[in-house]
Amino acid sequence: MGALQAFIFPNSIADRSKIMNSVPSPENDQQEPDSHTDQEGLNENQAEILLELQRDIMESIVLGSPAQYLFENICLLIERIVPGSVVTIMLMHEESYRLFIVAAPTLSDSQVGRFTGIKPGPESGSCGNAIYSATPQYVSDIVNDTRWNGLRDLANELNLGACWSQPITTTDTRIAGSLAITSFRKRTPSYFHRRLLETSAHLAGIILQRDKIEKTLEQTESKLRGITNTLPGVVFQLRLFFTAGRYQLDYVSDGIKSLLNYPVNATPKLNALQRHIHRDDQNQIQQSLLTASESLSPWQHDFRIITTDNSQRWVQARAIPEPPRGDGSIIWNGVLLDITNSKATELKLRQSAIAFENTSEGIMITDPQSRIIDINSSFCRITGFTRDEVLGQTPRLFHSGKHDSAFYQTLWAHLESKGYWQGEIWNRRKSGEIFPEWISISVVKNERQETTHYVAVFADISQMKESEKKLIHLAHHDTLTGLPNRLLFNARLEHAMERADRNKKRIGLLFLDLDRFKNINDSLGHAIGDDLLKQVASRIKDTIRSDDTVARLGGDEFTIIMEDLNSNSDAVSTASKLLNSFHRPFELHGHEFHITTSIGLSQYPDDGSDPESLLKNADTAMYRAKENGRNTLSLYTPQMSEEVRNRTLLEKDLWKALRSDELEVWYQPQYCLKEQRYRGVEALVRWRHPIRGMIQTDYFIGIAEDADLIGELGEWVTRQACQDIALLAKKGFALDLSVNLSSKQLNAPGCQRLIHIARQSDIQLERLEFEISENFIMHDPDRTLPVLNLFGQHNISLAIDDFGSGYSSLAYLSHLPLNRIKIDRSLIQEVSSDLNDAAIVQAIIALAHTLELTVTAEGVETARQYEFLEASGIDLIQGFILSPPLTCDLLLELLQQQASV
Fold first, then answer.
1. What does pLDDT average to over the chain?
2. Number of domains making up the chain
3. Which secondary structure element, helix H or strand E, spans residue 329, and what is its range?
4. Which residue of 6, 35, 372, 891 pairs with 886 in a disulfide if CB–CB is 3.0 to 4.6 A?
5. 472 assigned to some structural domain
């Protein structure tokens, strides 16, 4: 038994500890298994929970656990998996077309009653709408959702916040009811929640189908056994006034005396039968008669009567209608049969024959020597054999070959000792196809206890088996690409390692991550992103060997397991082919897209002794490929793990540094050539680590970007720099302040926070300038412009940093709210020796001045660079030729020295 089985059946010998760990509970784990709603995939824990749920409920179904028991345990398990939820299962009454709760273990009887009798419709709540539309309904906010208009008072009374409902269908695609997860707060279902709801509703449908099959089998067997000789009856004629919805008896035969236990000499009135009908059945009789009259179809109805001695009997009314009369009435001629104790032999045989021929289950009857003597039409439909082809044959004709002799010996032993056998068996159709069936075999004996017949009743459960197969496939494969998911990948990698150990071979594990896939997904939409992922999966499969395993772990991450390698070069060669395959564009929606991939390679047994470490090291190597410029392959080395460990520790330390005094703001002066004075400074952050000393700025800025700390870091620098410059202004040194911004800060909320920080300080806003990268502006200029305009509305200047390192043009930049450009140091370094760089710098200065933009040169280090820039009309310079970055105190000394000259 699995983990969930141990939880459902506490008296079993299964270990309950596993389920307590795998299924979260409010006591042990307030975090639900799926806390990421934006990632269309399952992590390993979520997939394991779904797989255990499917496996153990299916095992319980096969073991014959009662439907009500299974329904309530499905509800309790989901409520355990999704804390704070209430789970209900509702079934639809076919005649009234209304819903009734069959399982809601945590609701009170009064609450259950409030939900009873809901009629499906577009405004009848999540469950009614799910059945009405035959689609799942995810209502995250009941208060504001029109689908709950019809149940608004009930929702308000019970303080319902959200309700997600999935239709329950049986194998014949009939909608039988719904399964719902309800919360008392607003709540949006994650991908895991939707999969959990879909899986649980599917299991409920299987339970219903099993129950239907078992009940039908039991009814069929009961009809075949029941043999009676006589059927006392009462002939009657009734007149139905259809428009008025009432009826009256025009004639009742003398049999009514015996039926109602009247004295022999008594003469009951015509309405005597109506007065003796059980009061709980009167409305049902009238309603069923009206329904039959609408189509003038034969009427049959079972009901109770109370005799004169106050005893209760069951009778069956069977009647057929005459054509409607001129007054709109309909005459029904029929018979009442006493079915309390027994039925007449003729009627019983006729009913048995009808059941035998019209049941959806196949029926086969054999003699004591197992020769087939009768079958029904469903037998022919299921097996494909005709009646003439099987009569006189034995059931060996249908053997599939899937069961050995021991199986049949056990079957016959149980049949002879118990008189019946029930279970799953595989047989063969006439076409040669083998199929599973659920079969019940009974022994028929005479009064001398001699076997006279064997009766087998079976149902084709191929669809149920196919459903099981689909559930297993869903648990092990990615729904978008059809590739193995993380769960199946881990299993295959573990098996591959075992084979490699036996065969003394190597394994290569490639970890692929698409370069800048997020840009495509965010800018063009998830539909194009999904199509791209499917094409990438197809291209990878076309490039690798047929026996290699490619899996999608989630997002844009793919892995490839390569077995039976002789050397490292085999895996490197495959990786090179993959890189080359990405040189071809991908065609999506009539357009060509170019995308590359970064690949990390780890190999077994060199780079890991278990699947987890091998995958982690391949992932580490992939990130090194990203750092090396993307679109390349990186082989794992032990040094990488140490670097990752150091980076992780620094990330943790950086978080602490933001809340202590380890960070400092230094300032590099900017010199105005025209005014011959220091006019401004650029704020630069420094990290004085208590153990490691000064940390290289570029290194920890990258860590801050990856750890999503860059926004907090940038706001801290802005706040500190504004305070320092405001303090210098009070001492008589008014300076312009430039602060670098990350692209992750350039969104409306981030810009609003920066503006608020500046306004809280004493700095004059017109002296504040934010520097942004050239590449950020050109990446998505339409989205950039509204964000940049926020700064201009508060008189805050903007500058393009590192101009000349990207692909922008001054002409296009003239349409943006910019005040200054800073020429990249890579151009400045060679202006005194490279004529091309010199010409480019002069052109930039001239065009910028034409557009009324101020120009600053970065990284000026030599006198020749200084002289060239001065001759070219540069506005500002900064670099080590003037001053390195200084602390605020040293900057004050520099300004005081300048003032004293």
1. 85
2. 5
3. strand 329-338
4. 891
5. no
CATH code of the domain in which 257 resides: 3.30.450.20
Q: Tell whether 675 and 611 lie within a shared domain.
A: no
Share of the chain above pLDDT 70, in %: 90
- Name every residue whose Cβ is closer than 8 Å to that of residue 701 and which is 6 or more positions away in sequence: 685, 710, 713
693 phi and psi, to 5 degrees? 80, -150
Beta-bridge partner residues of 234: 336
Residues 609 and 686 in one domain: no
The identity of residue 716, as a single letter, is W
Q: What is the DSSP letter of 384?
A: -
Q: Which distant-in-sequence residues (6+ apart) come within 8 Å of 656 by Cβ?
A: 662
One domain for residues 267 and 316: yes
pLDDT in tens, 210-226: 888 888 877 765 654 33
Q: In whole angstroms, how far apart are CA 618 and each of 518, 540, 554?
A: 21, 17, 16
Nearest in space to 52 (alpha carbons), one of 69, 65, 33, 39:
33
Single-letter amino acid code for the residue at 89: I
The tokens for 613 are 């470490």
Domain termination site, one of 170, 190, 219? 219
> Amino acid letter at 579?
L
Using an 8 Å Cβ cutoff, are 398 and 428 in contact?
Answer: yes
Q: What is the pLDDT of residue 567?
A: 79
CATH number of the CATH domain containing 129: 3.30.450.40
Nearest to 214 by CA among 398, 412, 66, 90: 66
Structural domain containing residue 874: 650-900
Q: Are 76 and 21 in contact (CB under 8 A)?
A: no
> 488 and 461, same structural domain?
no
**589, 606, 636 - which closes a domain:** 636
- The whole-angstrom separation of Cα 190 and Cα 35 is 7
Same domain, 251 and 214: no
Look up the CATH number of the domain holding residue 506: 3.30.70.270
CA–CA gap between residue 275 and residue 252 (Å, rounded): 14
Residue 349, CA distances (Å) to 260, 338, 362 in order: 26, 16, 19
**Which CATH number goes with the domain that contains 783?**
3.20.20.450
- The tokens 């077994």 sit on which residue? 604
What's the rounded Cα separation, in Å, for the pair 518 and 537?
17
Residues with pLDDT less than 70, the chain: 1-40, 220-232, 341-358, 523, 641, 775-782, 805-813
Distance, CA of 23 to CA of 32 (rounded, Å): 9
Tell me the per-residue pLDDT of 317-342, one tens digit each, with 9 for 90 and over: 999 999 988 888 899 999 988 887 65
Which contacts of 696-705 are long-range, i.e. CB under 8 A and separated by 24 or more positions?
A: 699/650, 700/650, 700/654, 703/647, 703/650, 703/651, 703/654, 704/654, 705/742, 705/744
Amino acid at 520: I
Query: Residue 642 domain-assigned?
Result: no
500, HSE (Cβ side, Cα atoms, 13 Å): 24
Round to whole Å and give the CA distance between 579 and 515. 12
Of 462, 351, 383, 450, the residue nearest 375 (C-alpha): 383
- Provide the strand spans (E) within 612-704: 633-635, 663-672, 677-689, 693-695
HEC profile of 478-539 = CCCCCCECHHHHHHHHHHHHHHHHHHCCEEEEEEEEECCHHHHHHHHCHHHHHHHHHHHHHH
Q: Are 255 and 333 members of one domain?
A: yes
- 332 and 366 together in one domain: no
Residue 471 counted as domain residue: no
- Domain match, 630 and 655 both: no
DSSP secondary structure, 748-809, as one string: HHHHHHHHHHHHHSSS-GGGEEEEEEHHHHHHSHHHHHHHHHHHHTTT-EEEEEEETSSS--
Share of the chain above pLDDT 90, in %: 48
Judged by phi (left if over 0) then psi (alpha if -120 to 50, else beta), residue 323 lies in beta
**What is the pairing mode between strands 233-241 and 591-593?**
unpaired
Read off the tokens for 291: 């329904």
Residue found by looking up tokens 């028991």 in the block? 69
